[in-house]
Automatic annotation (TrEMBL):
This is ATP synthase complex subunit 8. Belongs to the ATPase protein 8 family. The keyword Membrane applies. It is a single-pass membrane protein. The keyword Transport applies. It comes from Bittacus pilicornis.
């Protein structure tokens, strides 16, 4: 059974490391959080209070 040369292992490690780093960079800059749009009516919650003394 032939063995792999150490330079090939190093090349594979560098290749997969670069792919992993590029994948993380793309996901980091592609992230867009959902910003909720607030209207004035949803911010102010008023309920009529009937005080009976």
């Amino acid at each position: 059974m032939p063995q792999m040369a150490p330079i090939s292992w190093l090349t594979l490690f560098i290749l997969f490391s670069l792919i992993f780093i590029i994948f993380n960079i793309v996901n980091y800059y592609n992230y867009s959080p959902n910003t909720p749009s607030y209207s004035l009516e949803s911010k102010i919650l008023t309920s009529p209070l009937n005080w009976k003394w």
